[in-house]
Design a protein that fits this description.
disordered N terminus; 7 helices
Length: about 210
Amino acid sequence: MRGKYFALAAALALSACQVSAAAVTAYTDVRPDQWFYGDVMAASSLGLMNGVGGGRFDPTRAVTLEEAITMAVRLHAWYHGLTIRDQAPGELWQDPYLEYAETQGILDGLYLEGSLNHPAQRAQCVALLANAVPLSALAPLNAIPDGAIPDLSPEDPLGPAVYALYRAGILTGVNSSGAFQGSRFITRCETAAILVRFQDPQARESFSLPQS
């Protein structure tokens, strides 16, 4: 396990993008008339996401794997009432997040090879976030039959988690058919919406999918 930790730390060190816990009150590239405005501001005020510098959020940029890990750690800490330790002298800023993710099982069972400053696939991001919350947080809201997600079987490795998130109203799919499209990159504004639904049951979506 420590080998995995140091491998992740080495990959993260290549990136100059630091995600801090500080919230901001406004972004120059997020307007009130955009569909994601409320989600971005809520995720920021909760300390689950923050900007990219210069007063910008960069809402349509793909989330990187390191950002996804950081967000999953913060979501886990919020749910469980835990704290993420401060960066110690001589450490990389990422070290507390990586240590937390490993010791709390957020990385368990996940394939995270490659540079962590590259875009994360939807499947990777969702798997990290699903590992961050207790099952009690995923109370069913929607009756989504097995097989209703057109591109994901309940028997797939990520199937149980994704179906649970659809049924909880946290995920709704990327088109009218409810497709998951796990290999597609996920944007920062999309991730903000998902994080808010994890945190606030009142924000979750009620919908249905026909059994295929």
